[in-house]
Amino acid sequence: MGSYRVCVCFTRKFRVTEAEPPSDVKEAFKKYTENGNQMNSEQLLKFLIEVQGETLLTVGDADAIIRQILQKRHPITKLTRQTLALEDFHHFLFNTELNPPINYKVHHDMNAPLSHYFIFTGHNSYLTGNQLTSDCSDVPIMKALKKGVRVIELDIWPNSDKDDIHVLHGRTVTTPVELIRCLKSIKEHAFVASPYPVVITLEDHLTPDLQAKVAQMLTETFGEMLFVPESDSLKECPTPEELKHRIIISTKPPKEYLEASASTTASKERRNSSQRSNCSEDDVWGTEPSSLTADQDENEKSDSDNFEDEDDSNHRPQLASAYKRLIAIHAGKPKGGLKEALKVDPNKVRRLSLSEQALEKAAESHGTEIVRFTQRNILRVYPKGTRFNSSNYKPLIGWMHGAQMVAFNMQGYGRALWLMHGMFRSNGGCGYVKKPDFLLNVGPNNEVFDPKAKLPVKKTLKVKVYMGDGWHLDFKQTHFDLYSPPDFYTRVGIAGVPADELMKKTKAKEDKWTPVWDEEFTFPLTVPELALLRIEVHEYDMSEKDDFAGQTCIPVSELKPGIHAVPLCDRKGEKYSSARLLMRFEFV
């Protein structure tokens, strides 16, 4: 019983009651028990196979489910029966551990090249907050790895004495952290959440002598964990299975520092002599090809691979050969514009980095070339430089074009990051998601997927929102409303290719801690392989902004058919202890 004081002399009382099973649950129980009042293991198994799509389960599995439910619901009473009553059956369906909406085990083929996977990727992984003034630390790196992030980005700079290496966001007032501390934390936490490889992308601003010191740090810290390629550059990406428990380094191959620096100085002098406006200090590696810089600001340029490929410097002295030897995936762009940058070399794998704006611009005229490039090479997309508050962008444009590393600020909480969390709930949350076949296939006339093509509806998803529960256990009684229980409603929709995006919502249920909506929505999908089911619960507030009450995002390709318990998360993506929805998913 909950009490809400309306005024000094008047108190409203409400009882938190357990809602009865939805009619669909009652009908399923009636059907599979053949109008009986108890469900045995054979009947439960038949329901699990025919309705829930659990074709691999056995009678033994059904027996185990029944035992767990009875032990949880009747811990004191010694029951002789090993069957479920209707309320027990409903409790099973509403249990997020026993009846989740997706498979939490690795089930994708992990023996394809790395370029065939979307990879959970962080941006400026060392920052604790905004991009300009926050602290740099190994703590966000550890948090990211524990969540399954597989690509960690470190910006490495000389310290003030030029004798050691710091990690910091250059040309800002972020406080630095020592590189060695970050490397040790990566080693300790790299494989806590997933056994599959961790890629460290280095934004390198070092002199050759410090690059050699980095090579020593990497070798001594990671030892046998460090993947060292047999040749100067990879001819083909290894597989995640082959690289289990390995650390991979990806960065720009080292150049002759002084020559590059002199070239930069000369370039600046030429600009000054011509009195061009808005000139700024270039990175020591040179400038972006003009076709990629139209929408990029200075911060974005420092984050991209703005230098010529190492093959253009064959005659330069190799001052950091030990460092270069450790670079498994070479980053960089060849001379020339975008078309040249997207050329596929059959004898070499490389990584290309584009800002979100540069990708959007490139996609307008080079969409199929980007898809072809990502079939063999690695494309990294990163937030535009004006996202000083560490916000994120819509990740779908990257995935639509096959980009493996859609880099996100993991501290930039919001809907964009919820989508990222949703995508990487796929495949057991291991941080590697196999790309859909259409992004990897090549047709008889050498054609590849065109992201701009209009496609027919391939599949329709029906989503039914039955009810919700658990908020009274996760929130204080007056969290949502001082004077009465909450008025919850649910928003359900699709994030995906533009043709599939759609949001709908239920009606608000007044004064209910356990709301029952029983509403169904239909979503036609042209590219279900990339669709994410967005779910948000809010509390309606007549006078102010509606209160947040939970969210989750689920890959449509991973959804199990049937009736399932959907756990809800807070704004940061942490799962609530109890808040959940009972929903049904059906594909037609």
Automatic annotation (TrEMBL):
InterPro entries: C2_dom (IPR000008), C2_domain_sf (IPR035892), EF-hand-dom_pair (IPR011992), PI-PLC_fam (IPR001192), PLC-like_Pdiesterase_TIM-brl (IPR017946), PLipase_C_PInositol-sp_X_dom (IPR000909), PLipase_C_Pinositol-sp_Y (IPR001711). Its cofactor is Ca(2+). One of its GO terms (molecular function) is phosphatidylinositol-4,5-bisphosphate phospholipase C activity. Keywords: Cell membrane, Hydrolase, Lipid degradation, Lipid metabolism, Membrane, Transducer. Its EC number is 3.1.4.11. Residues 353-439 form the PI-PLC Y-box domain. Gene3D superfamilies: C2 domain (2.60.40.150), EF-hand (1.10.238.10), Phosphatidylinositol (PI) phosphodiesterase (3.20.20.190). PANTHER family: PHOSPHOINOSITIDE PHOSPHOLIPASE C 4-RELATED, PHOSPHOINOSITIDE-SPECIFIC PHOSPHOLIPASE C FAMILY PROTEIN. This is Phosphoinositide phospholipase C. It comes from Nicotiana tabacum (Common tobacco).
